[in-house]
Amino acid sequence: MFRILHNTKYDFVRQWKLAFITIIAFVVPALILIPISGFNYSIEFTGGTEMRLEFPQAPDIADVRGTIEAAGLGEAEITTFGSPNEIRIRAQDAAQVEQQASGATSVADQIEAALRAKYGAEGFTRLGSEAIGPRVGEELRRNAIIATLIAFGLTLLYISWRFEWRFAVAAILGTLHDTLATMVFIKYMNIEISLFVVGGILTVIGYSMNDTVVVFDRIRENLRLNRKKSLRETINDSVNETLPRTVMTGTTTLGALLAMIFLGGDVIRPFALILTFGIIVGTFSSIWVAAPLVLWIEKKWPRETDATPHSRVSSASRP
Amino acid sequence: MNSLKARLLVISAMVIASVFALFPRTVEDRVSRNGVMVDTTYTQIPLKYGLDLRGGMHLALEIDQSKQQVTDVNDALERALRVVRSRIDEFGVAEPIVQRVGDRRIEVELPGIDDRERATAVVQRSAYLQFQITDKTQALERVAPRLDAIVKARGLETADGTVTADTARSAVAGIFDTPSDTTTGADTANTVTDGPFRRLIAPGSIPGQYLVAVGDVRALTRYLADSAVQSALPPGKQVRWGSDSVSISTAWYRPLYVLENRAIITGDALIDAKPEQDPMEGARVSFQLDNEGGRRFRNETGKNIGNNMAIVLDDRVMSAPVIQGAIGTRGQITMGGRDIQPAQDLALVLRAGALPVPLVVVEARTIGASLGQDAIDQGINSGIAAVLIIIVIMIGYYRFSGALAVLGLGFYTLITLAILSVFGATLTLPGIAGFVLSIGMAVDANFLVFERIREELEKGKSIRMAIDEGFDHAWSAIVDTHVTTALTAVILYQFGTGPVRGFAVTLLAGIIASLASAIFFVRTMYYVWLSRRKTAPTTLSI
């Protein structure tokens, strides 16, 4: 049989400092950038109007913008979407959002009427439109945050029950790290935060947790089998033993995601990009963040050092 | 080997059940959906596609409180929901969704509709309630021969290129063959005629009521919409459809009413209506009118004792009780029976007419069908490519065992789709992404097991031992990872809307199928492989 990364003996725990510096270098610039320029939210969160139009030939974007402004509809963001013939018009400034409140479809209809007057009744096809009132957006944002917090809370409880609280805290911190890193990635790539992207972030959380749990599962087992070894050694052994699986799963999932990035079209692409990053960072964090964290927490709040030092671990074992 | 037989039996049962759940079937929609009958016939794999995949409109409505504060939001929302539901069949779409979301929003999904102005106008129009006396002069019977002639002369009978005559044709023909009056027990002399108009209608149980087989509703609606037919209808009368279909023996009929033009009162005069349970008379609705309305109502009902009074909301007859005596400001409509539900519904109808709820559109999306098609193609292409990549990696690295896992993936896909179909989940674009992702989880579970088997083999265990130990040791990791992901999926479902929900549902279905596939199916395949060999194998291709 062909095997990769078989019987490795890397000292992963020792590398935690390097990992820490990498994280800081990646996250800190964004922590400065985000308060200044914020995130790019989709109209689902800000409220506003978005429409997609298809023209027979590529329209002049400046012309379209001029037409909309001349009709008194304020500044609209206009981008091509997919092919140059397809454009996306977005009106989301405060005045328009206010207009929305009185009847959410009105802005899209006004824009369409203005453009029909300019390009003729058959000048373009309306592929789709969305109009969202400001309150819906607020609610969505709140729900997304609540959902994430509850997901974390429940996972904390579940891992505390199946493992013990030190592992749970380490897993949650590792996953929080992944969430933060993913948000930073979104900021760097200037990906627009839509509902679909929020789904992507939550999937990254799930994946990262998945990866961490696999490593922890092995630590749990090795602690039970071999009580003489130090926790540090056990953690290193466990990470090494699960390394082939970690790399194989990562590679396969990345392969599938690459297919989605290249073939999935404009709708799926941002989602696939986020997941690609999330899987890389999730794998990174379960090896270099979550596992060393267990050691660190153990040092700060050591277990009772009686005759059975890992009794709590072994009691919460397999079903 | 008994346990192997039992395992194979379970797998066969799951496969058969899944294939059955996914078998393309002809769906004849005659079920009452939210009290409205929809009559369509189509053949398809029973999977629902979301609006983003097949195009359509999504509207979110809220009560407009900008002009006046609504005190009982809950009741107002229920009234609005009732009104929107009863109107939604104006669009004639196959699977409209009208549902309450949270404590102040109504969501409407209209697949295939992209006329936004009309859709928003229809749902925002305020409700209009009228009480009208049903016709007892057989006015329709008298003009029926003339209507027959007009329908013939104008060639309305042959489907005039309208899309109504689609796949439902065969079902309609079936109803034509059996004279519809045999089931109603009504006066046969009136109905057994070959006039194209009269052929479709049979007298109902009360004066001014006619029954139309559900399959003929579209044809008759088309006749009635014709201008020549309209001008030949009895003067001073109105023709209105009933809201709910009725079943007589096995067939379903939609009532058609002929009503006096003049409304004896309208919803404005109504103050309140509530359901009651009377120990003697059973379920009933009691309603209250204002003084002016009460005076008029006493006068009108006094003249019409023994006649039927149709309660008409938005031009649809909701109910047509008999007037037992003169009614003043307080009246009762007796439904009878112990079931309070019909009384509750009628009271809601009356309140909806009495207190119209102004609605505001807070969210409107239209997705063109062409956009949907592009998205489907891209989604499917990327899905196929993703699966191919996974297959190549698995077989390339784990050889025979990888092939078993690929077989497991086939099983996994079947189960996932079956779960989605059984729970009536809607397949959306994020849903496809969630599906591809849960494949990742299924693959991961296999990798966990395979790596573990390799370790066990290395420790010098026999093939059979190594397989058993591999699955047993991987079990805890697989369960813990699946449960944590499932927790996230459930929460996403709870808090998400639309697309995120679609994602959560497919993810959840995928997690369940992944557990069944990785832990049970692949292990059984190993046992099958072991049992087919006469001697214990010395090597395992993994």
Q: Can you put this structure into words, describing what you see?
A:
The complex is a heterodimer of chains A (319) and B (542). In chain A, a hairpin with a 1-residue loop joins strand 2 (77-81) and strand 3 (83-91). With 319 residues, chain A is of the alpha+beta class. Chain A has a 4-stranded antiparallel beta sheet. Chain A is built from 11 helices and 4 strands; from the N terminus they run ααβαββααβαααααα. Chain B is of the alpha+beta class. In chain B, the strands form 6 sheets. In chain B, strands 9, 10, 11, 12, 13, 14, 17 and 18 form an 8-stranded antiparallel beta sheet that branches. A 4-stranded antiparallel beta sheet of chain B has the order 7-8-6-20. In chain B, strands 15-16-19 form a 3-stranded antiparallel beta sheet. Chain B is elongated, with a radius of gyration of 30 Å. Residues 28-39 and 159-192 of chain B have low confidence and may be disordered. At the A-B interface, strand 4, helix 6, helix 8, helix 9 and helix 10 of A face helix 4, strand 20, helix 13, helix 14 and helix 15 of B. Strand 4 of chain A pairs antiparallel with strand 20 of chain B, so a sheet runs across the interface.
How would you concisely characterize the structure shown here?
Chain A is 68% helix and 9% strand. By secondary structure, chain A is of the alpha+beta class. Mean pLDDT of chain A is 83; it is low at 306-319.
Q: Helix fraction of chain A?
A: 55-70%
Radius of gyration of chain B: 30 Å
Give the end-to-end Cα distance of chain A, rounded to a whole number of Å.
32 Å
Order of helices and strands of chain A: HHEHEEHHEHHHHHH
